[in-house]
Amino acid sequence: MNLSCSFLNIVIVLAFTTSSGKKFHRLTVHCVKKYFLLFVLNLLPIFHTNTFTNPFSDSTLQEGDIVFRRKRSAINCDSSCFWPKSSDGLVKVPVNVSTEFCKTWIAEAMQEFTTLTCVQFINRTTETNYISVVPGESCWSHFGKIGGMQQVGLMKTGCMSKGAIQHEMNHALGFLHEQSRSDRDNYVKIMWEYVIAGEQGNFGKVNSNNLGLPYDYSSVMHYGANDFSNTSGKATIVPIPDPSVPIGQREGLSNLDVAKINKLYNCCSNVLHKPNDTFSSVNYPSSYPDNSNCLWLIRIPQHQIFLQFDAFDLQPSPDCTSDYIRVYDGSSRNSSVLLDKLCGMGSLPSLVASRNVMLVEFVSDEATAATGFQASYSQGEDSASFTELGDISNFCLANIHVQN
Ligand SMILES: *[C@@H]1O[C@H](CO)[C@@H](O)[C@H](O)[C@H]1NC(C)=O
Ligand SMILES: *[C@@H]1O[C@H](CO)[C@@H](O)[C@H](O)[C@H]1NC(C)=O
Ligand SMILES: *[C@@H]1O[C@H](CO)[C@@H](O)[C@H](O)[C@H]1NC(C)=O
Ligand SMILES: *[C@@H]1O[C@H](CO)[C@@H](O)[C@H](O)[C@H]1NC(C)=O
Ligand SMILES: *[C@@H]1O[C@H](CO)[C@@H](O)[C@H](O)[C@H]1NC(C)=O
Ligand SMILES: [Zn+2]
């Protein structure tokens, strides 16, 4: 299965570069019908430029040997090519930025992911899988994680806007172009008569996983109206029904770009850093989703953390094996457990962390949801005065464990 899909993958790439848009489309759908889109297209390098240079003139690619890279990647590629989530719920993507760039500018583009999603671009130290941002004659990226070092090419004069950098990083996270979505014909019209000969493959449509989220004209992943046009003043992409809707912004991630990253990576996780705050399960007080695994890392500057559940309603099950809450006295799942698996309904007394860090984990299985929980925390005022509450976790468990 992997092999046949890898083979089709190569076919797709050839179609991308040499065939008409129609042919590209047909081949893509054939593979996608059988296999999960992101896996299938994983090895596809995605090219685009702000100018009309041939992307394959990029020297890094000629030296890199595309076929070899694909073969190597096919071996390394697992069932999906997402970047993995670490135990704190964050998706850490190591990046090494070439010294030839103005690093602060690229860091600023990446910081927006860190602030708004659970994807965190971190400086690579010794990680095996990482992104190497290199100067290129075009702007390009692989699709998803390919395993090992993977390059993102940025043109020093051509794609240095925040959104253009984010666009390439987003490809590496597993996103395709917005106008290649399966439903794009409802939102844009491709003006084939103005597409530069040979570049039609850039306007292919794929059987995409749209994540249940709307088409986004304002996405950084959307092409601009005049991209790949061979006639000045003639658009290649026209929004419908209103052709004046702006497309192709590269200012920064749109709200929907952020929502899509969070959805693709199941980011229900958050870092909470205010001295006090309230948080709740997804959709609260409506039912929480199935198969979620969310983490709230509470990390305040100092003082112990008091946590209180204002509402608690999780699907009950023996030993809370289905849906549960667990609270850790520290910053990771390796930290000591303050409150072990908890489910059912009821009211809970406060929990207190021994330090200024606490991790709340919420897991739901594939069946039967309930309304979930709402919790709030505040900081202690005197770090010496809480030792008497040390046994509270046992009390909580005894009190509300499995009410059915
Ligand atoms: C990564 O390294 C650069 C220096 O190369 C530094 O300015 C930046 O703060 C570092 N970022 C993180 C997240 O550690
Ligand atoms: C980052 O890339 C440079 C080459 O651009 C290389 O010399 C350096 O070793 C790399 N550092 C890491 C941590 O990958
Ligand atoms: C633009 O491209 C189309 C199709 O690729 C071609 O038919 C047309 O002649 C081209 N126009 C110009 C001005 O090059
Ligand atoms: C929460 O913190 C804010 C300041 O961030 C403060 O004004 C407010 O009184 C605090 N509320 C509680 C309940 O501690
Ligand atoms: C947590 O423990 C596992 C083994 O139980 C270990 O592999 C992992 O590195 C630890 N993580 C942290 C953040 O300490
Ligand atoms: Zn792109």
TrEMBL record:
Cofactor: Zn(2+)
Active site: 168
CDD domains reported in the protein's UniProt record: CUB, ZnMc_hatching_enzyme
GO BP terms, alphabetized: proteolysis; single fertilization
InterPro entries cross-referenced by the UniProt entry: CUB_dom (IPR000859), MetalloPept_cat_dom_sf (IPR024079), Peptidase_M12A (IPR001506), Peptidase_Metallo (IPR006026), Sperma_CUB_dom_sf (IPR035914), ZnMP_hatching_enz (IPR034039)
EC number(s) per entry: 3.4.24.-
Transmembrane domains' residue ranges: none
Signal peptide: 1-21
Domain of life per record: Eukaryota
Binding note for cofactor: Binds 1 zinc ion per subunit.
Subcellular location: Cytoplasmic vesicle, Secretory vesicle, Cortical granule
Domain CUB: residue ranges: 268-380
Keywords: Cytoplasm, Cytoplasmic vesicle, Disulfide bond, Fertilization, Hydrolase, Metal-binding, Metalloprotease, Protease, Signal, Zinc
The Peptidase M12A domain, residue ranges: 73-269
Keyword DNA damage: no
The keyword Lipid biosynthesis belongs to this UniProt entry's keyword annotation: no
SUPFAM superfamilies: Metalloproteases ('zincins'), catalytic domain, Spermadhesin, CUB domain
Cross-referenced SMART domains: CUB, ZnMc
Pfam families (UniProt xref): Astacin, CUB
Binding-site residues, Zn(2+): 167, 171, 177
One GO term describing the cellular component: cortical granule
The protein's name in its UniProt record: Metalloendopeptidase
Organism, as annotated: Chelydra serpentina
